[in-house]
Amino acid sequence: MPSLMNRFFTPVLPLVCVALTVAQGCATPSSAPVAPAPIKLAGSALRPGSWIAVIGRGGAADYWRLIHQGVVEGGKEAGVKVLWLRLADEGEAQAITDCLGKHVSGIVLAPSNEREAGPPVMRAEAAGVPVVLIDAGFKDIPVAATVETDNYRAGCLSGQRTMELLNGKGSALVIGLHNATENLNERQRGFVDTLKGSGIKILSGELPPGSASPNGVTASERLISQFDLVHHPDIAVVTMSASTSEAMLAALEATSLGGKVKFVGFDATGPLIKGLNECKVDTLVAQNPRLIGYLGVKSMVTKLEGEYVDPDIKTDTMLVDRSNVKSQEVRALIAPPVNASLP
Q1: pTM
Q2: Can you list the domains of the chain with their CATH numbers?
Q3: Regarding beta strands 283-286 and 318-320, do their DSSP bridges make them parallel or antiparallel, or are they unpaired?
Q4: How do strand 81-86 and strand 51-56 relate by DSSP bridges?
Q5: Dihedral sign, CA of 237, 326, 254, 246?
Q6: In whole angstroms, what is the distance from residue 201 CA to residue 141 CA?
Q7: pLDDT digits (tens, 9 = 90+) for 197-243
């Protein structure tokens, strides 16, 4: 696959060779972290006056700050004006309607779900305004392109690391969400497929929506009690989203199990990185939000120029652990610049 040529993405292939000092008392993973495969999409400047609206979500979380960073860089590189819009109470339908009224050239959207976002997206496409989806896709509604994490492969990576941590025996408690999104379902499918025939038993538990809230932590504590993790250290805990990972980490800390239970989390938020450095998280499966934002804009530019765009663009994930978390390459992927904020 050709290399990505933009100035803020530090080459990541050297990650395979990185080996930093491990914190006192923490075990070193038995295999090297997996680096994400770079992707390239090229696009030259559009006609003067062209502009692209990017409708994001997630407030000021690091994940969305990194997506915003990629969006800005993609717009600068392509020579096109990009306006970042955060959803407020009006929702996606009103935001897209407002964009159409302002004669936007294209819309890059992080959709909440297909049922709510689908109808306004179809109206935009019917009006001749192409839509590129980022972070999540649709099953049944065609758009110009979708740029999202390869969630199935993310689940496979999580499964591979879990097998290593358990040495091929014991059980894995996979924490899902009630009414989970397709993204989470794909991650769980990759995890289950990877563990087939391994001899590891898969257990399952669910957390309620909004699991990063105190209710999510309480629900995580109930799962800890239900599966009696205090007396079963051979059970590894595996989460598939940032919110479930943070809730489970807080619950493990509250029950004095932090660092005593093997834990594979998802995403690389501040609390999770802190837990990793404190030996309370063994490994994180990290997405590449900067690349998602960047490719969302670049694929839109390419579409507006009348060139072919891959309709299904997948970005890779990587394993982050204590052997590489402090490396420059990893920090460039998971940490927004100091004082970075969304407009």
Answers
A1: 0.81
A2: 151-286 (3.40.50.2300)
A3: antiparallel
A4: parallel
A5: negative
A6: 37
A7: 999 999 999 887 665 667 889 999 999 999 999 999 789 999 999 98
